[in-house]
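Tip: read the tokens left to right.
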């Protein structure tokens, strides 16, 4: 009977070794997955920022900014019907200030981008 227990103990020992090896391999895979997911998350969040697209496509961004400025500029109070109330005129003043602030911010970003490109050279 001692001989029968010995192979069983040997099998159990081998199974424990395999279990430990599998556990170690799973932990390694889990760590690699976490690193990959962190990289993907970082990449996605950086691509959602306007700065990424402005740096990647500076001239296209400038064109879009000009186009948006043109569209927003043509939506001003001069394009409204004469029968609008004073409330709408106040809203248009607010809209004008908002457009001006957006334009300033866009110009500042473009100037920063140009400065950074010039500094690289």
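Filled-in amino acids:
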């Amino acid at each position: 009977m001692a001989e029968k227990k010995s192979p069983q103990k040997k099998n159990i020992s081998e199974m424990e070794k395999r279990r430990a090896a599998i556990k170690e391999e799973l932990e390694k895979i889990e760590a690699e997955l976490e690193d990959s997911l962190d990289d993907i998350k970082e990449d996605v969040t950086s691509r959602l920022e306007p700065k990424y697209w402005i740096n990647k496509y500076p001239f296209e961004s400038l064109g879009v900014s000009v186009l948006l400025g043109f569209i927003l500029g043509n939506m001003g109070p001069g394009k409204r019907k004469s029968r609008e109330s004073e409330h709408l005129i106040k809203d248009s003043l607010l809209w004008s200030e908002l457009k001006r602030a957006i334009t300033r911010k866009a110009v500042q970003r473009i100037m920063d981008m140009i400065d950074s490109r010039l500094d690289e050279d």
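The chain has a mean pLDDT of 79. The radius of gyration is 32 Å.
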